[in-house]
Amino acid sequence: MPQSTGRDFYKILGVGRDAQDAELRKAYKKLALKHHPDKKNGDDTMFKEVAEAYAVLSDPEKRKVFDRFGEEGLKAGMTGDQADSYGSMGGGMGGGGMGGQGGFSMPPEFAENLFSQFFGGGGGGMGGMRGGNGGFTFVNGGGDGSDFGGMGGGSPFVFSSSGGGMGGMGGMGGMGSQGIPRRSPSQRPAKRQKRPPIEKDFAVSLEDLYNSATKKLKITRKLYDEPSGRFVDAAQVVELKLKPQMKEGTKFTFKGLGSEEPGYDPADMVFKLKEKPHPVFTRSGDDLSMKVDVSLKEALSGGYTTVKTLDGQNIRVPFPSLRSSSQEVVLHERGMPNTKTGSRGCLKVLFNVKFPEDASQRARLAGSL
User: Are 66 and 59 within 8 A, CB to CB?
Assistant: First the structure.
């Protein structure tokens, strides 16, 4: 057990003192995802402590010092060899300790740098959202976040208690003079980013628009489940409130309704309105148009026809004696409502003359006129 006061890194990670690398990695991943400050109810202090605990216990030299002297030994800048020497002499730290040899501290960006090595976000390890399913992938195809790009086996951290620092290790960048892995400014992960909006079409009928219907859509996204430490599918229903004047291409935006993933704000969900073709009416702005066939006899004499509107009303439409094969009658205030202007468009009824198909029919019709 450590012989000095300080934090217990084993307890912070929730592992035993004999924990191997795989168990340390698993514990770090679960706790880092749980406490990440970008998450709702995240804990920045715990996030940093978890990173610090993993950094120490995953490094054989630092772990040796911690096991012998606890956190105070690390702060004093002791090396693994010194820990062995003190251990063989049976002595404690005593006296003035080992100060002045570099010490042990973590820069503010350290926790995020470590997180990026596992999950991406500046280091490129994250595969991102594929097909809207959420989740993430890891570098080197490890699948469990156990591999670090370009680093090979063993711990991804090498500390130095003496001045000068170490050169870059497998893409980790230079090592600071206090033995803390550091990245150049260009390598450090950027602040939290946001994925591009996810756009989906949804189709509505003219009747839906005319009646200001409310459409309900069910979406499924990935959310982080704290008890299990995993991303799980979660269903949610959103409501789209239609207005008659809405045109094709109108967008409904729901902020942050995309899947959760480490290091990113959830994307916005955008639903684009698509208008279904109608069997009777065509639309142009607030105006509606429809076609009505009439016989040649009706066309020559004029008359009435009955049409059914979008709201289900049957209205009688008069038409005069037609002077051409087609003629339009405009009915004002019978088109689409507009809740902004308080007015309605027109209903345009196009009468098409239907001529007899054979000569005998045409002859009989001519004789009756």
Answer: no
Please name which of 224, 230, 220 lies closest in space to residue 264, comparing C-alpha atoms: 224
Tell me if 234 sits within 8 A of 222, measured CB to CB.
Answer: yes
Tell me which amino acid residue 151 is.
Answer: M
Give the count of alpha carbons within 13 A of 320, CB side only: 6
The domain 1-191: what is its CATH number? 1.10.287.110
- Tell me the C-alpha distance between 358 and 360, whole Å: 6
pTM of the model: 0.48
Domain ranges within the chain, ordered by starting residue: 1-191, 194-275, 282-368
Ranges of the chain with pLDDT below 50: 1-3, 88-103, 122-190, 369
Could you read off the pLDDT of 195-251 as tens digits, one per residue? Answer: 899 999 999 999 999 999 999 999 998 887 777 778 888 899 999 999 999 999 999
Q: What is the rounded distance in angstroms from the CA atom of residue 252 to the CA atom of residue 180?
A: 47
